[in-house]
Design a protein that fits this description.
Blueprint lengths: L14 H4 L1 H16 L7 E6 L10 E3 L5 E6 L5 E8 L8 E4 L3 E2 L6 E9 L15 E9 L13 E7 L6 H6 L5 E7 L6 E8 L3 E14 L2 E3 L2 E3 L2 E2 L8 E4 L1 E2 L3 E11 L5 E10 L3 E4 L2 E4 L4 E2 L9 E2 L4 E2 L9 E2 L23 E8 L2 E7 L11 E9 L6 E3 L5 E3 L9 E5 L6 E9 L12 E7 L11 E6 L4 E5 L11 E8 L5 E7 L3 E4 L7 E10 L2 E2 L6 E4 L8 H28 L16 E6 L20 H8 L8 E9 L4 E7 L7 E7 L6 H14 L10 E5 L6 E5 L6 H7 L6 H20 L12 E3 L5 E3 L6 H5 L4 E2 L5 E2 L6 H6 L4 H16 L11 H9 L2 E2 L8 H10 L10 H13 L19 E2 L11 H7 L6 H6 L5 H4 L4 H7 L4 H19 L6
The protein binds adenosine monophosphate.
The site of adenosine monophosphate has 14 residues, from strand 43.
């Protein structure tokens, strides 16, 4: 009867037809629904009434309640639609029972109902019984034999009402009002369940029933595979699921995700990484191809083998180094393979007594590494046999022998007068993997004499009221034959008045002392190299005067005191009369002892050796043979001509002396047909050179005078003359290397000036340079030096003078001194720093003389450190006494070498005058009129008096002030010291830049 209840206004009699209209519309809808039939990724259907091709097997109860409409869709698939419409009849209770549905392990299931429900208002009559809802129930059971379930055993899921009910009007409009309702049930505890739909008097068509559960579908996330996971029973439950790393991947941190009740994966934790040799691509781990590698799971992808490495295999975790290339254990596999460095370059040495300073340039090839350090091997070589042995432990290396990071080192405590070979080896992190490839540069040096070390043990001997006897031991390192000892003593706390005794013995007695008084003694030794340092202070006391005889004892004390006083007075007067700064008198002593008393003064000892002018010999041949060894011509092999001298060719060759290894030499020859004067002048140079023995003076091997041609044989200097060498290598050296060259020249010149020799023709062309960049002063001669120099020009007074290198006083009135050599040295500095530029360029000699006379000076060479240019200007002081001495120049250059940052300040390029000469004036003379004015100007007026009292009364004097002087003057505040020094520096820089007007 129910379906008839669906009758429209047309009042069609057949139940099938009654439903026809909605059913057509349903068909249309079904096509659309079928396309969605595949459950969404996260839903798994347990039942879908529309996909069941045969009988659904559902049971209606009572039989005339729900009925199935056997329709088919456009594909002739059956549409299982159940309908009931007994709205006119009272007390309806129509059940529709599904067959058993397995829950497939899901504990929460969803039921989606699609149905239409007729609006009771649209039905004629029967309003009293018409319902617009139906009920849905379930019953759990583990198997299918639950068909006899009683109504009251079912558990109600919900009463289902339509969101939309349809009226006849709606039908007319062909608007389908299909309701979809979803309910969920859980937790389920059995294997399956039945559903039941109860109608109590509505007009319903149940179009489809879909039962499903939700799952989180299998997924790969962070290289871990997570399995299909059925959602939890609770609608808010998150299930924690562990993932499994995919092939060729490893666990970085245990991978986990959470499966939500809605079937979504949430909150991934942890991850897997492709193992070494594999890289991630599209959620998989792909093998690294040959030529590529991946060292660790953490590297993001396969990388190309770094330079100098390769791999022929797939899945490489590292690459192999090419031949001769290596990898240090700690090198990362991504780093290129490297090799040991090449040898360091351009090593230069500076010898200072028994210390050697070495400097070099880093190797051209560092082997591709940054960890280059240097190792110094030291060998001591016999000058006779040429054999070398390891130096042994006595040599100290500053800062160290191995692992040197800087390109310089100082060796101290070497033996005096010894040939050493230092091998400087560059080492890097892979050097030890290829010991055969080690490369080094070697430097040969000969040390000079060292001063003796201080006396360390002093013992007291007999002590009386007026005398103290002492004895001591020779210093640990005498470094030569001890010529004498100097014993200085004074009464304790009376240091300004002291006595000096000289003794050749290791014991003395100091007498004439006060009884019962403490005396302080210090001893030092002297060798040919000069004095060593004083020993520490030793304090001894004279015996006291016995009380009983005190009266008598006063007399000798007074006598002694008076005697000492008289002696001291005599000493002072004697010295004043003889024009010396301090006095001495020979006391009655052991003839081996010499005693001097001092008061606020000191004695300068005369130089150990002096130069002897060969002119003073009546027979010049005698001079030659005194100072030069005669060599047999057969010992010399001449190889090639390397230059032309005034007297003949200069050749290179080899010298083989008996018992010695053959070594390279330069040979100057005297051309045939020479006059006797020429022969004398030629050999004069050897007579002079032969007197010198210094690493920065060209060394004379000997002369050949007994056969022809007459020859002078000297050490061979591979790089020839300095000016040509610098021009050839313009811009190739570090400032330190240039300063090293200058230091060598200054050291040679200091030696010459100490010997009392004035060079007169010091210029870069007369300096020779060897393969280690050691510079040596050469070209010694008498009058002929200047005759032979093409740079020398005749002056109005008739002499021939190299104008550009010569001090004004030497040009004007031939006043050649070591101070005029210092002027020339300043010009050599300028030549060196400008890589062999011609001083004063193309100016004429006359213009040069005039400009210099007027106070103009050469401007700073390009990129010249300010400290060096200042030194040049100091060398070019008009007043020769104001020029620095060579020993001061050497120590200043040493200071600069030790502290290379002091060379960083360059003469300001913008204010460098490129082709004009710089006006030169003493510091500050233009800027401040007096020391007081200057100090006031920098707010340091409070020190004016102290400056004046200590002799700094002019700005010229002030210019010489050092930091030490300031401290001595009592300027102890660091801020004040800085202010004064900065102001002085500023004035000097202004001067350097030619900014201070004359
Ligand atoms: P001199 O006659 O001393 O000026 O020498 C002429 C040239 O010969 C120099 O300019 C140098 O190029 C070369 N010469 C002289 N002495 C040596 C040496 N000891 N070693 C190498 N080259 C030298």
């Amino acid at each position: 009867m129910g379906p008839r209840g669906w009758a429209g206004r047309a009042g069609a009699p057949a139940p099938a037809r009654t439903c026809l209209l909605p059913l057509l519309l349903l068909l249309l809808l079904c096509a659309a629904l079928r396309s969605l039939r595949a459950s969404p990724g996260s839903e798994v259907n347990l039942l879908d009434s529309r996909t069941v091709m045969g009988d659904l097997g559902w049971i209606a109860y009572p039989k005339n309640g729900w009925e199935e409409i056997g329709e088919v869709d456009e594909n002739y698939a059956p549409i299982h639609t159940y309908q009931v419409c007994k709205v006119m009849e009272q007390n309806q209770n129509n059940w529709l029972l599904t067959s058993w549905i397995s829950n497939e392990g899901a504990s929460r299931i969803f039921i989606e109902l699609k149905f239409t429900l007729r609006d009771c208002n649209s039905l004629p009559g029967g309003l009293g019984t018409c319902k617009e809802t139906f009920n849905m129930y379930y019953f759990e059971s583990d198997d299918e034999d639950g068909r006899n379930i009683k109504e009251n055993q079912y558990i109600k899921i919900d009463t289902i009402a339509a969101d939309e009910s349809f009226t006849e009007l709606d039908l007319g409009d062909r608007v389908m009002k299909l309701n979809t309702e979803v309910r969920d049930v859980g937790p389920l505890t059995k294997k399956g369940f039945y559903l039941a739909f109860q109608d109590v008097g509505a007009c319903i068509a149940l179009v489809s029933v879909r039962v499903y559960y939700k799952k989180c579908p299998s997924v790969i996330r962070n290289l871990a595979r997570f399995p299909d996971t059925i959602t939890g029973a609770d609608s808010s439950q998150l299930l924690e699921v562990s993932g499994v790393c995919i092939n060729h991947s490893v666990t970085e941190e245990a991978p986990k995700m959470h499966c939500s009740a809605e079937g979504e994966w949430l909150v991934p934790i942890g991850k897997c990484l492709c193992k070494a040799g594999y890289e991630e691509k599209n959620n998989t781990c792909q093998v690294c191809r040959p030529g590529f590698f991946k060292a660790s799971p953490h590297s993001p992808s396969c990388s190309k083998c770094p330079p100098h490495s390769y791999t022929l295999d797939e899945a490489s975790t590292s690459c192999l180094c090419e031949e001769h290339y290596f990898r240090k254990e700690s090198d990362p596999p991504t780093m290129a393979c490297t090799r040991p460095p090449s040898a360091p370059r351009s090593a230069i040495s500076n010898v200072n007594e028994t210390s050697v300073f070495l400097e070099w340039i880093p190797p051209a090839d560092t082997g591709g590494r940054k960890d280059v350090s240097y190792y110094i091997a030291c060998k001591k070589c016999s000058s006779h046999s040429g054999l070398c042995e390891a130096c042994g432990g006595h040599v100290r290396y500053l800062p160290q022998q191995t692992g040197l990071k800087n390109t310089s080192v100082m060796m101290v405590d070497l033996l005096a007068h010894t040939n050493y070979t230092f091998e400087i080896e560059a080492v890097n992190g892979v050097s030890d993997q290829n010991p055969g490839a080690r490369q080094f540069v070697s430097v040969n040096v000969t040390t000079n004499q060292a001063a003796p070390s201080p006396v360390s043990t002093v013992k007291k001997g007999k002590i009386t009221k007026n005398s103290i006897s002492l004895s001591w031991q020779e210093p640990d390192r005498p470094n030569g034959i001890i010529l004498e000892y100097e014993i200085k003593y004074f009464e304790k706390d009376q240091e300004t008045s002291y006595t000096i005794i000289k003794s050749k013995e290791t014991a003395i007695t100091a007498d004439g002392l006060k009884p019962g008084s403490a005396y302080v003694f210090q001893i030092r030794a002297r060798t040919a190299a000069g004095y060593g340092g004083f020993s520490r202070r030793f304090e001894f006391e004279t015996s006291p005067v016995l009380a009983a005889s005190s009266d008598q004892s006063q007399i000798p004390i007074i006598v002694v005191s008076v005697t000492v006083g008289v002696i001291l007075l005599a000493v002072v007067i004697g010295f004043l009369l003889s024009g010396r700064r301090c006095g001495y008198s020979k006391a009655k002593q052991d003839p081996e002892e010499e005693k001097m008393h001092f008061h606020n003064g000191h004695i300068k000892l005369p130089g150990v050796r002096t130069y002897v002018d060969p002119h003073t010999y009546e027979d010049p041949n005698q001079a030659v043979h005194e100072f030069a060894k005669e060599i047999e011509a057969s010992c010399i092999t001449i190889e090639r001509v390397i230059g032309a001298g005034e007297f003949g060719e200069v050749c290179s060759g080899r010298l083989k002396l008996q018992g010695k290894r053959e070594f390279p030499v330069a040979i100057k020859t005297l051309k045939v047909g020479y006059t006797e004067k020429q022969r004398r002048d030629f050999l004069g140079e050897a007579s002079i050179m032969g007197q010198f023995d210094h690493p920065n003076i060209i060394h004379l091997e000997g002369v050949v005078t007994k056969s022809k041609p007459v020859m002078i044989v000297t050490e061979y200097m591979e790089n020839g003359s300095l000016d040509t060498f610098l021009k050839k290598n313009d811009g190739q050296f570090t400032v330190i290397q240039l300063v090293g060259m200058l230091r060598g020249i200054a050291s040679g010149m200091k030696y010459l000036s100490d010997m009392g020799y004035v060079h007169r023709d010091l210029a870069a062309r007369n300096i020779l340079i060897n393969s280690n960049l050691v510079c040596k002063v050469s070209d010694f001669g008498l009058s002929r030096v200047l005759e032979d120099d093409p740079e020398a020009a005749y002056t109005t007074r008739g002499g021939k003078i190299p104008i550009r290198w010569t001090a004004p006083e030497a040009i004007a009135f031939r006043k050649f001194t070591s101070a005029s050599d210092v002027w020339s040295y300043g010009i050599v500095m300028w030549e060196v720093m400008s890589y062999g530029e011609r001083p004063y360029w193309e100016m004429t000699n006359q213009d040069v003389i005039k400009a210099v006379e007027e106070g103009y000076r050469l401007p700073s060479p390009m990129d010249c450190p300010a400290a060096l240019y200042q030194l040049m200007l100091d060398c070019w002081q008009k007043d020769r006494n104001s020029r620095p001495k060579f020993d001061e120049i050497v120590s200043m250059l040493d200071k600069l070498i030790r502290n290379p940052s002091s060379l960083k300040t360059l003469v300001n390029a913008s204010s460098r005058v490129s082709n004009l000469l710089v006006e030169h004036s003493p510091v500050g003379s233009g800027a401040y009129r007096s020391v007081g004015e200057w100090l006031e100007a920098i707010k340091m007026g409070r020190y004016t008096e102290i400056f004046m009292e200590n002799g700094y009364s002019s700005m010229d004097a002030v210019a010489q002030v050092t930091l030490e002087d300031l401290r001595r003057l009592g300027v102890t505040l660091v801020g004040h010291q800085k202010k004064i020094m900065n102001s002085l520096q500023e004035m000097k820089v202004q001067l350097v830049n030619g900014m201070v007007p004359l």
